[in-house]
Amino acid sequence: MATLKKTQSDTPTPGDSYVQSFARGLQVIRSFSEKTPRQTLSDVAAATGLTRAGARRILLTLQTLGYVAFDGKLFMLTPRILDLGFAYLSSMPIWNRAEPVMEALVQQVQESCSAAVLDDTDIVYVLRVPTHKIMRISLGVGSRLPAWCTSMGRLLLSELDEPALRGRLAASDIEALTRHTITDIDALVAKVQQARRQRWCVVNQELEEGLISIAAPIVDRSGRMVAALNISGQANRTSAKVMQETMLPSLLAAADEISRLL
């Protein structure tokens, strides 16, 4: 099963402009996850590599600011933490205008639709209109998936030149997630290059057994790809070939419409 993972740019080399205490605060926030929604002080210290005293200072600061709650034993994030993520979305009103386009696409194809951007070795979901639950992992705004084995990720990686692409793949945790997963670097580069040529990408059961997705680019006025749009479906309901033949034209049209909104 595919797992959500954190970005790999968590430990940059400190410099004159690097605020270590702020970085440690973000590290503490990221230690909370679906698997660890409630943690003791010792849990947070172990997960972040901080001392108990250092983790305690950060947690109490976050509690004072309203981002963390404490029940006397366990710490947990509060809904206020969403302000940090939604600041990004509110700074890009394009996604408010894109949502009706995606909803219309979902109604047309009867499959889930998502939009994502590239962040280091991951894609990050910025909008999602689901239909049926087709994945074993829960996806929503802010969810991360590895770029190298997802349709939106491979398409977004196609904006990189080959040295940068190979560097990004080398930094990724590449492993066989299913029996269909491509793990060879040269083969992955070829897949990304194919996505670059055709301006769309399909991934057939590489991230999760039974899951097929197809992606199209969202571009700005200069033609630079800034995000990707995809449709996800189940292999036992729709084959990759049928998805390409029957849904890709609608997906490309929706991506073009969102691109024009930029």
UniProtKB/TrEMBL annotation:
Statement: the UniProt record of this protein carries the keyword Metal-binding: no
Highest taxon of the lineage: Bacteria
Keywords: DNA-binding, Transcription, Transcription regulation
Domain HTH iclR-type: 19-79
Keyword Transcription: yes
Domain IclR-ED: 80-262
Database matches in SUPFAM superfamilies: GAF domain-like (SSF55781), Winged helix' DNA-binding domain (SSF46785)
SMART domains listed in its UniProt record: HTH_ICLR
Annotated protein name in UniProt: IclR family transcriptional regulator
The species this protein was found in: Variovorax defluvii
